[in-house]
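Hello,

Following up on my earlier ticket. Below are the two sequence lines again, exactly as submitted.
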Amino acid sequence: MAHSAASTTGSPALPEVAPISLKAIAPWAVFFGVLMLVLLYFVGAEQGATSLLSGESVHEWVHDGRHLLGFPCH
Amino acid sequence: MNTVSVRSLLVRGMLAGLVAGCAALLVAYFLGEPSVDASIGYEEAHSHHDDHGVELVGRTLQSTAGLATGVLVYGVAFGGIAALAFCVALGRIGRFGPRATAALLSLGGLLTVYVVPFLKYPANPPATSDPDTIGQRTALFFLMIALSVLLGLAAIILGRRLAPRLGAWWATVAAVAAFVLAVGLAYAFLPSYDEVPKDFPASVLWRFRLSALAVQGVLWTGFGLLFGHLAERRLAPRAGSVDPARGVVETTP
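Thanks for your patience. The regenerated structure is below:
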């Protein structure tokens, strides 16, 4: 009890949150950032403005999601 | 603060995005689908040409499994991106702890990734756009998102530069004013598309766009709250709320 009271009332003395070094973030940001953008591309634009796969099946499958998520769709 | 925290934050971000996506999916299904159906009804009543002869995916699948795929993948993807942005923002945007940083980041994400582009290029239900302009509309929509995010980042940098001279309050006011002005210029100079048919029911369009906003509001709010909680627990274990049994992944290297 005494400890927790001391730690909450002592908030001005709390250290600032230490930033995570950009070097540690970079590899994750590059690989996963690109992967996430690819996912967004397939949800948002594939077989609409541009097509990597032929046909209409991706477009038709995510059709409602594309409209309701605000992407331009046909 | 090392690679392990980046990985665990990324995993938590994607999970928080998935859960927030589930909440957004409910909103999309119950609020959004009725207006999508109404638009498709209008489309069928007004279609002169029969290019929808064979349906690849039926309406029932489109409005359930298809919708879920779209919204959940979107949630996971933005959860991952937001978690990476969180890793950069943490400890760099002022004296905010993990939870407050996640909340601010989600608010900033909702505004710059969705609301600002939406005000120029709003979500459109089926039957209200010209298929011939899909290329330009898609390019401009993504351009507007990129522009809005970059202007948002520029506004943060500007605010931090001005803070020593103007104080935190007026520096924030000046940064927001600069952002609004720059976005206004972008709105003024980028082309608009108004292709909604004259007799398309206005109330359907209004309800559709409100639902689209609600979907994003729920998604980003849910993500901010959940991810903030997970990040706080992960990064501040000394607070006495360590609960390794419920940890999503054990982050031993």
